[in-house]
């Protein structure tokens, strides 16, 4: 009985692995590439920051500031800070 | 004539093809080697090159190549009687499609898993490669325009299928989220997904949805086509994991369930084939069987589209070279089995010969609707399933397949536009959204340009799709043949199908050209001319490249 159960478990695991591969095989490349692109961007930002290079995101997000301010305000009040913790950003 | 006999003969022939003929081809012609280091192992990167289990790869290859075409083609071609379609599907699968698909994978694997387009440039020449790009673009354009019409007709004819067809998209969206965000186990999600899909199929007939006959200036048919293209454009822009991947997966599972159910129903119910063996009294306007039969049934016998999948993704994931026989040849066999099911449904699913003749009253009338109605009759007779539910099940099967092919087709077409944008430095065209709009625009132009306000231009150009697709198959066979000549292997096994295909394609194009000229159909005449020029160029390329390679061979031998 125990042996049958473990054999069943083994077959279930194998079927599950084959199913996952069947699900992923056609799109593995596209998804892996998208993930790699995100990792590349993250790497660029982190290393740029570390080496003292100006972050291009700050320049590009300047236009979004009015929208971001609201979200920033929500964030710091949610975090239990009545006033903005950053000197440069005065939302309230 | 018993349908079981047809089934047994057809599947028996295909089994012979796989177990005997393909073994011979693998050993003597392609000389596949288990020890050959495949690109998936050599360049394994977890992105494109991943050694994959051969059964899984077969499933992926088969479901990628099986669209609506193996249903549409045979269901139209039985107008000449069941025997010609049956023979072409069986013989075509064994001696043409199997060799072609197997050969495309083999040729690609032997050349660092390059795509067949790149290989054409390297093996045959740059001219052939340019023709290749044009032919691919035309095939994609036609596939998208044709399938838009096919789905629209299905939705109008079976309003009960509207809920499951569109509901399948919602099911796929939920499945994608459950797998990637909720991290649920795949078997459980699959079970839930298939269960939800079949529940929608079950309730579909009780909540029929029909569009009004005219919506503003357009008919319901045209409205569905516009909605479908809108959907396909959005789907092709979404990240693949959100919709395309789970949708293809659920479709694949549904195809297996549907095929098994249909074959079981034939074995249980043993319906009689009511269509004539050879139809001598074809309706007026039906084109000549030779050569049109060989281009009307493309997928299911031999299809160039398969070469794109075989060399595009399959070859990069092949673990061992010997697996190419199972994945490629058996993949083609699976498609042949689907075409056989379509033939049986469109010839044995009618109560009498006059019923059948009423449906096949003119060329192109049968098609998917004959498959759905006939197949539903067989399913309900064999399994006791409610006829309406059976009809909805088959409609959903056909519509979903056409739908996923449309999504992928539009995505591929968009890539071609983006590539052209980069090559010719047209910046706006290299961006995804404008390129998608261009793809949709050209498809709509074809659908409404050739078909008028009804938008059914796609179906009118179906025979042109066949010829274009066969040209693609010809190019793939040419690459394989040139490679065989260079290796000193026997070439007749690929050369004979190549010559036959090109001859039939040229013959069909010339006949159609005459027909379009006589009816004054200038749009199709122009399109036909483009394909004809490509076909002639391919033929010339074939002759010159084979002669060149043979000369090189003779010089080497003499030295």
Salient structural properties:
heterodimer; A: 92 residues; mainly alpha; 4 helices; 71% helix; B: mainly alpha; two-stranded antiparallel sheet; 2 strands; 1% strand
Question: What order do the helices and strands come in, and which of them pair?
Answer:
The complex is a heterodimer of chains A (92) and B (559).
Chain A: H1 2-24, H2 28-50, H3 56-60, H4 65-78
Chain B: H1 3-29, H2 39-42, H3 54-65, H4 69-77, H5 82-109, H6 116-124, H7 126-157, H8 162-180, H9 186-203, E1 214-215, E2 218-219, H10 220-237, H11 244-269, H12 289-296, H13 305-317, H14 323-348, H15 353-359, H16 367-383, H17 387-423, H18 432-451, H19 457-460, H20 462-487, H21 492-519, H22 522-558
Antiparallel strand pairs in B: 1-2
Helix pairs in contact in B: 1-5, 1-14, 3-11, 3-13, 3-14, 4-14, 4-16, 5-13, 5-14, 5-20, 6-7, 6-20, 7-10, 7-17, 7-18, 7-20, 7-22, 8-9, 8-11, 9-17, 10-17, 10-18, 11-16, 11-17, 12-20, 12-21, 14-16, 16-17, 17-18, 20-21, 20-22, 21-22
Biggest interface, chains and residues, is: A-B, 21 and 30 residues
Distance between the termini of chain B: 61 Å
**Sequence of secondary-structure elements of chain B:** HHHHHHHHHEEHHHHHHHHHHHHH
Major sheet size, sense and barrel closure of chain A: none
Runs of chain A in which pLDDT lies below 50 for 5 or more consecutive residues are none
Mean pLDDT of chain A: 86
Provide the β-strand percentage band of chain B.
Answer: under 5%
Provide the gyration radius of chain B in Å: 23 Å
Number of DSSP-assigned strands of chain A: 0
Q: How much of the sequence of chain A is in beta strands?
A: under 5%
Elements of chain A, N to C (H/E): HHHH
Overall, the morphology of chain B is: globular
Structural class of chain A: mainly alpha
**Unreliable stretches covering 5 or more consecutive residues of chain B:** none
Structural class of chain B: mainly alpha
